[in-house]
Design a protein that fits this description.
- The chain is mainly alpha-helical and 587 residues long.
- α3 crosses α4, α5 packs antiparallel against α6 and α6 runs antiparallel to α16.
């Protein structure tokens, strides 16, 4: 009985991380959040993902067969669209952190998303897929009308805007359902990000197997309508969970707080900052921060120049009113918020090359697959459906990681998580590099098996030889993207949590744009009057293998830079109640 009494005093019945119920009161743990709410959000995310991939996974084929774009143009169009999806995540994160909060942001952008899918379905039905059922390998579509193309791009970029703005907020809202000051809920919060990525892949499994098969056979309209229905169902389920979610207050515009630190530090560029963090300006008590929905951050020794913003000068001592002006004097927590963001940026930049590797799965992997033998006996395998092996690999490696690798590495390293987030991201970089080497070798073998008498015909090499490169990409995702979600969400200060989640999406976005640039540069340098180049319209006359090997070399350089940045990085240290008197644990 004594032990239970002690435990009941330590673990509060209400959350202590600043989360609230929908009425603005401190959230009661028994009635809100936890797995009951997070599972609903995971189902919501899985359905949204099913809808997204129902459009996106075969869009490169739609562009070629229905809109009559060539290989390079279609690959660049996909990279631009995918990149835009994830760059919009920064807008969603900004609105979520600053003004709307996670819940309203998710609801608004899902409505935009559903609207875009409905417009795409109607446009394809009445304007683009003509005659009905065209766009398979045999029936050619009529040239698209100007109105049809305009509505197509309007709808697809509405989908990009809706999905991009939704993604960082749903990831953060899901993790908000667990109070990290509670030991049991803290462990669940770590597990949530693995299940979040699992939901992404389970949601895309239906699209990559069933929908892609029907779309490849010319049933584009049906595929798009199924995607719209899945997104609408996701929105309904999301709204049903409203009474039980845990909410956080938006903390205001973070750009203003960042600007205040930079201005205050530059004003005092001649001042000497104290070497001890206790001598810097900070508010007493936690109440002022708790009201703003954030927690205190302890002082760190990196980027010491910014400490000048929290240094009280003799002039400010003589003029107490200046102590109230944040453009002249900032708190340690405000300074550390800026430090955290700046320290994460080098790590984030190193993930962009991996995203270049990852984006090939939706473009060049598919185009490579269409030039291979896609028949297994009497069964035709759509090239885009090969991404199912990426999904199966993700599902398998999440289970292997959590059930096998974590216990083994925990015993070896003493870290209960097995590997730190930074270590897992490094492993993801290595596996991604291996995927590009394997893809290049497969392409070499594919080219050897192109019939000399029919250079325009597909190679006799089976499309199943692509399985290893898809499986390696899937394994790398488990380490890289799950690690990224945990790292950026965990290391981002409370006032920019959605921004932290959006960094993962923004990495994919820039990876797509860098991929566009690389494809364009490689095409312009390798193609000439008598040279088809590495990535021509007919891949049988090109050298896609050299492009894959180039990406592998870039990944090797990126890995070396990443290791240096990871060694330099020091994690955030929160001054929360349960940490007082303890040594903070860093990433």
């Amino acid at each position: 009985m004594a032990a239970n009494t002690v435990d009941s005093k330590i673990i509060s019945p209400i959350t202590e991380d600043g989360s609230m119920d929908r009425r603005g009161n401190p959230a009661v743990k028994a009635n809100t959040g936890k797995w009951k709410s997070s599972i609903l959000l995971l189902v919501n995310y899985g359905l949204v993902t099913c809808a997204f991939f129902g459009v996106g996974v075969n869009l490169v084929v739609f562009l070629r067969r229905v809109l009559h774009q060539d290989n390079a143009e279609a690959a660049n169009s996909i990279s631009k669209w995918t990149g835009t999806v994830y760059i919009f995540s920064l807008i969603g994160a900004f609105m979520s952190d600053s003004y709307w909060g996670r819940y309203i942001t998710c609801a608004v952008f899902q409505m935009i998303y559903v609207t875009g899918l409905v417009i795409l379905s109607l446009t394809s039905w009445f304007l683009l897929v003509k005659p009905s059922g065209c766009g398979d390998e045999e029936t050619h579509c009529d040239p698209p009308s100007t109105a049809g193309v305009a509505l197509f791009y309007l709808s697809t970029y509405m989908i990009a805007f809706g999905n991009g703005g939704y993604q960082p907020s749903i990831a953060t809202l899901g993790s908000d359902q667990f109070d990290e000051t509670d030991p049991v809920e803290a462990r669940s919060k770590v597990a949530f990000f693995s299940y979040f990525y699992l939901a992404l892949n389970v949601g895309s499994l239906f699209s990559n197997t069933v929908l892609v098969y029907y779309e490849d056979a010319g049933q584009w309209v049906m595929g798009f309508w199924v995607s719209a229905a899945a997104a609408a169902l996701a929105l309904v389920l999301f709204l049903l969970g409203t009474p039980n979610y845990r909410y956080f207050k938006p903390s205001g515009n973070p750009l203003t707080r960042i600007a205040q630190v930079l201005v205050a530090a530059s004003r005092k560029w001649r001042a000497d900052a104290p070497t001890r963090g206790e001598l810097l300006h900070e508010l007493d008590g936690d109440e002022s921060y708790r009201d703003a929905g954030i927690r205190k951050i302890l002082h760190s020794d990196q980027l010491r120049y910014l400490d000048k913003a929290a240094t009280v000068t003799e002039e400010e001592y003589r003029d107490p009113e200046s102590l109230k002006t944040p453009w002249r004097l900032c708190t340690v927590t405000q300074v550390e918020e800026v430090k955290c963001i700046l320290k994460m940026l080098p790590i984030w930049l190193c993930t962009i090359v991996y995203s270049v590797v990852f984006t090939q799965m939706a473009s060049l992997f598919v185009e490579q697959g269409t030039t291979m033998n896609t028949n297994i006996g009497s069964f035709h395998v759509p090239a885009a459906s090969m991404s199912v092996f990426d999904i199966l690999s993700v599902l398998a490696f999440i289970a292997i990681y959590r059930r096998v690798l974590v216990p083994v590495m925990a015993r070896l390293s003493g870290n209960p998580q097995g590997l730190t987030e930074l270590q897992r991201m490094g492993v993801g970089l290595v596996i991604g590099m291996e995927a590009m080497v394997v893809a290049g070798v497969v392409e070499v073998e594919r080219l050897k098996r192109v019939p000399p008498s029919a250079p325009d015909q597909p190679s006799s090499l089976s499309v199943l030889w692509q399985v290893p490169q898809y499986a390696l990409i899937g394994a790398s995702e488990v380490f890289m993207y799950v690690g990224q979600l945990e790292f950026f969400n965990g290391q981002a200060p409370d006032g920019v949590k959605s921004f932290g989640s959006s960094l993962c999406m923004a990495s994919i976005s820039l990876g797509n744009y860098v991929s566009i640039m690389l494809v364009s540069v490689v095409t312009s340098l390798t193609a000439g009057d008598r040279r088809p180049g590495w990535i021509p319209g007919n891949l049988n006359s090109g050298h896609l293998d050299r492009f894959y090997f180039l990406l592998a070399a870039l990944s090797l350089v990126d890995l070396a830079v990443y290791v240096a940045c990871a060694i330099w990085y020091k994690g955030i240290k929160l001054d929360s109640n349960e940490q007082k008197g303890k040594v903070p644990v860093l990433v």
